[in-house]
């Protein structure tokens, strides 16, 4: 799969973004200042900063036409080496992009969310977008009615579902969350209403005054608050389809319960054939990311920071998220303060969150000696809303494999053991 194939696929689908087709959008940006440098731009990177979804897609397409690679990673960030005071998309300095050594198949560079660790610049291939489109089509079902969402296109879920819908021939209507109430231009039939838990809540409010029929409501998370799920299903009259919208998987594991069955092209590794014991899912995709900028080698096998189990019907169910970070934005700052505190205490830690109808409480699990009351108070004070209602426990040693990596399934099992020597405090 090559860039011309990808461009041809977007053009031949005749799908539109906010009412405009891709060829017209591409033509609008051929004379962009970011592309004014003459000659071949192969191997160069263009940091994209545009005001709306149609402009982002148009700029990406124009960049692909010139053989360059678009970057969706918050191009205006002051900490980036390509930052300038000039607004809009810009060509990354040659000295920077040449150091990145992007492989020929790289079609997009994008910042990961950091939900499973430190955010990184991931390299996506041309082919990955086709596999992602197949995966989302399998999750959403067939149809030609539009996709409506307000996930920022700079996020992996946002650009993933947008390109997937366009390649499958669906029109896309998009506004950022702050302007969701301006969504318009579509009839009373929506094919897919999609987003994260937070953006689905925003969409629900923004579209509350309209009488709409929705074929599928898709949430990119593997877990959804029962109250929010009930509200959305009652409002739209359809069961919520859940999945993962990460850069690594492209939301390819999706289903009506948890992550469901793997989509076309996915190969599961180390999956127990039977039994309800939780395990860490390892997945190999034909559309894996090519690797990360600044890191050698290509990663082919992805280990989710989540645990799953096989249900009685053979479907895979999400059990728990075990991660160092949380995606809920109103808790991000408090969690950052907590992380600094735990770092100063020289403690490794995991935040365990239950899934679905599981009744066990969220837990902040720390490695090391039992906590003193002073330690617990300090953690609660700095964690604030990030750990409100969360149990705080300590474990002398986390279970690790031969290379020192924490084994998540064993960690969850140990945490559920009532005989575990630990300190337990609840806020």
UniProtKB/TrEMBL annotation:
> Hey, which family's this protein in?
Belongs to the ATP-dependent AMP-binding enzyme family.
Please tell me the species this chain comes from: Glycomyces rutgersensis
Source domain of life is Bacteria
The protein depicted here goes by the name AMP-dependent synthetase/ligase domain-containing protein
Q: Does the keyword Ligase apply?
A: yes
AMP-dependent synthetase/ligase domain mapped to chain residues: 95-254
Q: Which UniProt keywords apply?
A: Ligase
| One Pfam family it belongs to | AMP-binding
Q: Does the keyword Cell inner membrane apply?
A: no
